[in-house]
Amino acid sequence: MRLAGHGLSVTLPLRWEGRLYVRDTAQRALAHAAAYGHPDESTNPVLHLANFALPPGRGDYGTGAVESMAGHNVFLALVEFDAAEADRALFAARGLPRLTVRDFAPNQLQRRIAGQLGCQRFFTHGGRAFCLYTVLGSQHNAVSLVREVHEVLATLEVSAR
């Protein structure tokens, strides 16, 4: 299945789910009430990918989804920032990052959940500023889960919005 919109497209492997969205004003107000965002933030695309069923009502970085992950699960969030951010030092890395098992650690999680590992990378691709946030369900399965991450990210295409 191909998921596309807002200048992003990705082919989902079997068993994977994906959601691509941009929160509108009403959603931002709701998100603020649920601690999933700030009402004054910009509205940029957010892409969620996972090898498990994505629950409704997720935060941009997976709050509401990562809590239900099993050891064989992986969750990815590709969050776009404003175009002006692409010139900032935080986004100096160019191109989609290639992650290795060594990139993942419990202290890179938004919120620590026993057994999980996380990785967060900021980068610029096609003049657009992004954060790639990835959560692995367990260290024991890290090698195979990172392989799955590579498989899905290899199909990701970024173009003008």
What's the helix and strand layout?
Elements: E1 2-5, E2 8-11, E3 17-21, H1 25-33, E4 46-50, E5 74-80, E6 117-125, E7 128-136, H2 142-153, E8 157-158
Reported for the largest beta sheet, the result is: 5 strands, antiparallel
Q: What is the string of SSEs from the N terminus onward?
A: EEEHEEEEHE
Number of strands: 8
The overall pLDDT average reads 90
Oligomer: single chain
User: What is the domain tally?
Assistant: 1
Number of helices: 2
**Shape estimate:** globular
SS class: alpha+beta
What would you note in describing this structure?
By secondary structure, the chain is of the alpha+beta class. It has one domain. Helix content is 13%, strand content 28%. It contains 2 helices and 8 strands. The chain has helices at residues 25-33, 142-153; strands at 2-5, 8-11, 17-21, 46-50, 74-80, 117-125, 128-136, 157-158. It has a 5-stranded antiparallel sheet, covered by helices on one side. A 3-stranded antiparallel sheet has the order 1-2-8, with no helix packed on it. A hairpin with a 2-residue loop joins β6 and β7 (128-136). The protein is globular, with a radius of gyration of 15 Å. 27% of the residues are buried.
